[in-house]
């Protein structure tokens, strides 16, 4: 490795590192915000009902099949 080689950091990485240095609670706030929208308990019975109620999609959705009978 050459003596003049430096570890490269993109401008985006530098910005994020500076932001985290200025505001150390940022990651905890992000995790709390994620918890409000995404980390919800799942209802296993409702998921099973949704899976059971699925209807298979036809291979070519823009073609209407002729009615039988």
UniProtKB/TrEMBL annotation:
InterPro entries to which the protein is assigned, alphabetical: DUF3460
One protein family per Pfam: DUF3460
Name assigned to this protein: DUF3460 family protein
Annotated organism of origin: Pseudaquabacterium rugosum
